[in-house]
Design brief:
The structure holds 3 protein chains of 3 kinds.
Chain A: H1 9-22, H2 28-42, H3 51-64, H4 70-78, H5 84-93, H6 104-120, E1 128-132, H7 139-151, E2 159-166, H8 169-177, E3 179-180, H9 190-196, E4 197-199, E5 205-207, H10 209-212, E6 215-219, H11 225-228, E7 234-239, H12 248-261, E8 262-270, E9 284-288, E10 291-295
Parallel strand pairs in A: 1-2, 1-7, 2-6, 7-8
Antiparallel strand pairs in A: 3-5, 4-5, 8-10, 9-10
Chain B: E1 2-3, H1 11-17, H2 19-27, H3 34-43, H4 46-55, H5 63-72, H6 76-92, H7 94-104, H8 113-124, H9 127-138, H10 143-155, H11 161-171, H12 175-188, H13 194-203, H14 208-222
Helix pairs in contact in B: 3-4, 4-6, 5-6, 5-7, 6-7, 6-8, 8-10, 10-12, 11-12, 12-14, 13-14
Chain C: E1 3-7, H1 11-23, E2 27-31, H2 34-43, E3 48-51, H3 60-69, E4 78-82, H4 87-96, E5 100-103, H5 108-119
Parallel strand pairs in C: 1-2, 1-3, 3-4, 4-5
The chains are: A alpha/beta, B mainly alpha, C alpha/beta.
């Protein structure tokens, strides 16, 4: 390589980088090394079929962090005390989309065996409390509400309090407005869509007022005990696709917060590709149908 | 019956309305006063001990008591709270982190498996404070302690990790200690280690796992 | 095809045991620690567990105790494999619910033999 001349050194460096990176490829054993590391950290294991997906994103981060080889990038990430680069990677490698009835097998589990067990331990007149955290733009808490109304046998016998929280006030506004794109409601059965949503002139759907009023929204930072102190005696928590984006210390703290919040025997649902196995042993593993859920001991 | 919304919409009101929060406040009537917390840590029921352990995260001077309680505490929930509080305290300042390390390292010799593993997890989170102790641990006369030290290295975000492991494979003679170190090198091994790794196969010709581990590490290092 | 769950926090150990067991016709899945192993074993039926002792979050003894307490899992045989060599450790393993105990590194032929014995051969 010809060393860059002083005057156009920036241009030459950019050109050199471009040339170098066009040759960047992830070797099989490099993919294996990365896969083992990522699996250990997150519990997510990339099958060989995900090779292109993974390689592309690793190469993206190699470039964005000004590294020129997998080796130097991996070393940088592996020994970074803050764990920030790993967090960036996790964000890149996971799909963050939210929509109604996402991972609905968990809602099926809720309105079946989970609420059955919760009800068994309730005194007469005691409400059931469900907490969705993060609420994001509301698809999850409203999905829970729809499931309870449409698919839960006990809806007329018991009071349910539905709470939903997020750290971001902007998404909370979206929750309250409850206006959703066709993409967001694509998994809803037609009869539910018709019954609970209003089709707006621009093609979006707005959730009816009754349902909007059925969820208690609040702004909460999960690692701020002043925010979480008030959440107690919860029976079911949905914390899906949040903890995976936390570092180890924050994850452990969040687990303690959920433990504090839950009634003995209460349940937590994590995201489909998340697991308490990378977080804490505070909860008992339970399985209902095809869903893994975590229970606070009695 | 059915979906019932709370009348008010702010967190403080939820707090005020809930009878059970009041019960909780009663439970924590010893709360926030240091001596009271220490007392509760030892004398309370499991739930109280857990709360005491949680609240003691605010008190770096509680390190000794928290670590001591670990060896006496049979309840997993309380232990977890102690470990979590120790981690929180360690973030506060380096002196605290150093003290915690000094108290926890001896627990690596414990026969109590979950206690040891909990200690390893805390140590893994404190790379700069653990580093000065690493070489000594890796040369401990107890092969188990050497294995646990190498377990710490699995997660330790410290750049000296490869060098420490190279030292181990150069001088170690215990099969399982060596095997553990070689497993680590599949992730963090460097090119300068390849010849030392190959020597292991010559030193231990009748150890199929060790050969497999060495081959794996070399393949990963060479980036084939 | 019979299925074995290998529970160990060291990836090379899991790979090595996988090779040994696949060679004699077993299907293999892996878990990093006892919690993950519990999750997997509740979702998929296994014919045998191969369990390490020292793992983060949930160690091998506790995993076996959990298995023995759960009606859907308690019948599944388990071989505990560990670096611990004392008689005491073997007793702990049996008390926790292991059917057999091997000290690491396990001889591959012996391991294949015990796996076939306990899982009843690789074909159902």
């Amino acid at each position: 390589m010809i060393p860059p001349a002083v005057g156009d050194s920036m241009q030459n460096q950019a050109a050199q980088r471009k040339i170098g990176d066009q040759e960047l490829q992830i070797a099989d054993s490099e993919f294996e090394r990365f896969r083992d590391f990522f699996y250990r950290k997150t519990g997510i294991y990339f099958e060989d079929s995900k090779r292109y997906f993974v390689d592309k994103r690793i190469i993206q981060r190699i470039q964005e962090t000004d590294h020129h080889s997998f080796r130097s990038y991996f070393t940088y990430m592996r020994f970074q005390a803050s764990g920030e680069e790993l967090q960036v990677l996790i964000n890149l490698m996971t799909v963050n989309e939210t929509y109604f009835f996402r991972e609905s097998y968990q809602f099926d589990c809720l309105v079946g065996p989970v609420l059955d067990e919760v009800c068994k331990n309730k005194r007469a007149g005691e409400p059931i409390r469900i907490w969705s955290m993060p609420s994001s733009t509301g698809e999850e808490p409203y999905s829970i509400a729809l499931y309870l109304l449409e698919r839960w046998a006990g809806i007329n016998d018991v009071d349910i309090e539905l709470m939903a929280s997020d750290i971001d006030s902007r998404v909370l506004r979206c929750c309250r407005d409850a206006i959703y794109s066709p993409r967001s409601v694509k998994n809803l059965p037609a009869d539910i869509l018709k019954k609970y949503f209003l089709l707006l002139p621009n093609g979006d759907y707005q959730l009816c007022r009754d349902l909007r009023d059925s969820v208690e929204f609040s702004q909460v930072n999960l690692v701020d005990s002043n925010d979480t102190r008030a959440f107690r005696n919860i029976d079911v928590i949905f914390c899906r696709n949040l903890l995976i984006y936390f570092d180890d210390a924050s994850r452990r703290m969040a687990a303690e917060v959920f433990y504090d919040a839950l009634n003995p025997g209460g349940f937590i649902f994590l995201g489909h590709s998340e697991s308490m196995s990378r977080i804490t042993s505070l909860f008992n593993v339970r399985k209902f149908n095809d869903a893994i859920t975590y229970q606070k001991p009695f | 019956m059915g979906l019932k919304k709370k009348i008010t919409s702010n967190v403080e009101s939820i707090n005020a309305e809930s009878i059970n929060v009041k019960n909780l406040e009663e439970q924590r009537k010893h709360s926030r006063d240091y001596d009271g917390l220490l007392n509760l840590l030892h004398e309370g029921d499991p739930s109280e001990r857990r709360w005491a352990a949680r609240d003691l995260a605010e008190f770096p001077q509680a390190i000794d008591s928290l670590c001591q309680r670990l060896t006496q505490e049979g309840d997993l929930i309380v232990r977890e709270a102690i470990f979590d509080s120790l981690l929180q305290i360690s973030q506060a300042n380096d002196a605290s982190a150093r003290n915690i390390i000094l108290e926890l390292i001896p627990l690596l010799r414990s026969e109590d498996t979950p206690l040891r593993n909990g200690v390893i997890e805390v140590l893994q989170n404190l790379p700069n404070s653990v580093a000065p102790h690493m070489e000594k641990l890796l040369q401990d006369k107890d092969s188990d302690v050497r294995i646990f030290a190498i377990d710490i290295l699995r997660e330790l975000a410290h750049p000296d990790t490869p060098a420490w492991l190279l030292d181990v494979i150069n001088r170690e003679t215990h099969i399982n200690v060596l095997a553990n170190a070689v497993d680590r090198l599949a992730e963090v091994g460097t090119e300068d280690m390849v010849s030392e790794l190959q020597k292991i196969k010559i030193r231990f010709p009748r150890e199929p796992y060790l050969s497999f581990a060495v081959d794996t590490a070399i393949r990963r290092i060479e980036g084939i | 095809m019979k299925r074995v769950l290998i529970v160990d926090d060291a990836s090379t150990v899991r790979m090595y045991h996988r090779d040994i067991l696949e060679k004699i016709g077993f299907a293999v899945e892996e878990a990093e620690n006892g919690i993950e192993a519990l999750e997997k074993s509740l979702l998929t039926p296994f014919d045998l567990f191969l369990v390490d002792v020292n793992m983060p979050k949930m160690d091998g003894y506790r995993f076996l105790e959990e298995v023995r307490q759960r009606t859907e899992l308690q019948h599944i045989p388990a071989i505990m494999i560990s670096t611990e060599e004392q008689e005491l450790d073997k007793e702990k393993a049996y008390l926790a619910g292991a059917n057999f105990y091997q000290v690491k590194p396990a001889d591959p032929i012996a391991l294949q033999h015990y796996v076939e014995l306990l899982a009843g051969g690789s074909n159902p």
